[in-house]
Write a structure and sequence with these properties.
By secondary structure, the chain is mainly α. It is 73% helix and 2% strand. The strands form two sheets. A two-stranded antiparallel ribbon has the order 1-2. A two-stranded antiparallel ribbon has the order 3-4. Strand 1 and strand 2 form a beta hairpin. The longest helix is centred in the N-terminal third of the chain and has 39 residues. The radius of gyration is 23 Å and the shape is globular.
């Protein structure tokens, strides 16, 4: 027990800032969401109107929860629960991989295994640490609901459901760390599992069965394939069903047990999925530093590009459906017109989807810059810089590939939008909106790129944490700020919220020049400061 407590204390000391940021951020999002919902949809008529639009529109249900009535608490959970659960899931998977496969890569696990703690206690300490982190996150989420005056049982259940989803993905992260040999591969496997199950839950809600008055939805069987769907089916502040949360918790514990068995069945540093054999000779592309950066990051870039293609297809193929809903619901039509800069409902739909696309492009860019930090921390950048490759050229290559990733994601989305229009025999004039909003999101995502690069140069150890935190904050402000009626000054702090719009037939550039200025200044500053920076290895 003494050894276990020592290992647990080490993990808490190492992660307390990150865990606190994830937990407090989730609680604040829950609190701010309720305040915004109460201001925007204060009457039952307002909530009934939006729920009717949501149940008639699969696009909304893809990115929201399970409608469970018009009560304020149930309505707020419908709007925000999947995103609260996603934050818990990301925190849990990253924590699980960091203290298992990540420690094996850096050699920490081997040192600990040489002590009387052996290989079992570190795993137990990591699992316990993850459970405590989700307990804290769930408690703060429940506390946020209680602070705004919602019912005690519903608040406790909503917090428990969010934490239980996090425990499930703690198990997913632990299993992924046993299956593949690198922390990068384990994180990718866990994140793709998270995204696929998130989409499954949304699709299950979208094809579910609504009640007669369009205020509730019975989810389809697809939803029950996803931990997000289990959490949503607790129906907090309505039926208050505890057993779906218990199902989440049980599956998470089962996955932890499975991963413990896998730990005891493999060698330290080994994996159950064998790495594919490499080529005997390097390709011509690896003759340059830029080619090497592309080789290291191409898998992630291709994945984000496929995501951009899907978003583009949905943005236009579903626009006609949204237009029909907006025509029958003036409140929804007005919201979409505001989003699109007083354009048509179809333009508002495209703008909404392409705002999400800006987040995907930013994620692709941030992941490329984070790879530079990983190469530095693992010591693989040092041999490269010992060759005739300067620090500035090395960082510039990552910036170029990251910018290429942004362009590829946006270009794929524009191509997908054209496919969607063609499949629906739609108006090709909508492509002007697609091109304007897509080009604007290139500028927005580039701001996230250069800010992350600046953090990498000035505070390299915080690169990954700060880079992804900025993307999450930008997403929350840009996507949810208008819905929750945040002040314009706060919403406009997000680059994705101030990109150019098509105002009728004219282009409103909005904050484009500021975005371009920030991108240029950030790129010059990061490259200039990199000239004098020493390498900083270690996590």
């Amino acid at each position: 027990m003494t050894r276990l407590l020592a290992l647990l204390g080490q993990r808490i000391r190492r992660d307390w800032v990150q865990v606190l940021l994830w937990s407090v951020g989730t609680g604040l999002l829950a609190y701010a969401s309720y305040v915004g919902v109460a201001g925007s949809y204060g009457t039952e008529q307002d909530r009934t109107s939006l729920l009717a639009a949501a149940l008639a529109n699969p696009v909304i249900l893809l990115f929201r929860g399970l409608p469970s009535g018009t009560g304020q608490g149930a309505f707020m959970v419908f709007l925000i629960f999947p995103w609260l659960a996603m934050l818990a899931a990301f925190m849990s998977t990253f924590l699980a991989v960091r203290h298992t496969r990540g420690d094996e890569e850096t050699g920490r696990a081997e040192l600990v295994a040489a002590t009387p703690a052996s290989r079992t206690l570190p795993f137990v300490a990591t699992a316990t640490h993850g459970l405590l982190a989700n307990l804290l996150l769930g408690a703060l989420t429940a506390g946020a609901f209680l602070a705004v005056g919602l019912s005690v049982e519903g608040s406790l259940l909503a917090g428990a459901a969010v934490g239980a989803v996090g425990v499930t993905f703690l198990g997913v992260g632990l299993v992924a760390a046993q299956l593949v040999r690198t922390s990068r591969g384990a994180n990718s496997l866990a994140v793709w599992t998270l995204l696929i199950t998130f989409v499954l839950s949304g699709m299950g809600n979208a094809i579910g069965t609504p009640n007669d008055d369009l205020t509730r939805m019975e989810s389809s069987w697809l939803t029950w394939l996803s931990p997000f769907g289990w959490g949503e089916n607790t129906r907090a502040f309505d039926e208050n069903l505890w057993w779906p949360a218990a199902l989440c918790l049980g599956v998470g514990v089962l996955l932890v047990v499975i991963s413990a068995a896998l730990v005891s069945a493999r060698d330290l540093g080994g994996s159950f999925i064998a790495e594919r054999r490499a080529r005997a000779d390097a390709s011509a592309a690896l003759s340059t530093p830029t080619g090497l950066v592309w080789r290291l990051t191409r898998g992630a870039v291709i994945g984000w590009t496929v995501g951009g293609l899907l978003v583009g297809i949905l943005s236009t193929s579903l626009a006609s459906i949204v237009q029909e809903v907006g025509a029958a619901n003036p409140a929804v039509e007005e919201i979409l017109r505001q989003i699109s800069g007083e354009g048509s409902v179809e333009q508002g739909t495209v703008t909404t989807f392409f705002t999400t696309l800006g987040v995907l492009a930013a994620c692709a860019a941030v992941q490329v810059v984070c790879r530079a930090r990983q190469e530095e921390a693992h010591g693989t950048a040092e041999p490269l810089l010992a060759a005739p490759v300067g620090r500035v050229r090395w960082l510039a290559d990552y910036l170029v590939v990251a910018l290429l990733a942004i362009v590829l994601v946006i270009a794929a989305a524009i191509g997908g939008a054209a496919i969607g229009i063609a499949s629906q025999d739609g108006d090709m004039g909508l492509m002007r909106t697609v091109l304007v909003t897509g080009a604007g999101q290139v500028a927005a995502a580039s701001v996230f790129l250069v800010v992350t690069a600046l953090v990498f140069v000035v505070l390299p150890r915080l690169t990954i944490a700060v880079g992804w935190t900025l993307v999450v904050v930008g997403m929350m402000l840009g996507l949810f700020g208008p819905l929750f009626q945040f002040p314009d000054e706060l919403v406009h702090l997000s680059p994705i919220a101030v990109t150019p719009l098509l105002d009728g037939v004219d282009i409103d550039v909005r904050g484009l020049w500021w975005l371009l200025l920030a991108t240029g200044a950030g790129a010059v500053a990061s490259l200039g400061l990199m000239r004098r920076r020493e390498l900083e290895a270690g996590g």
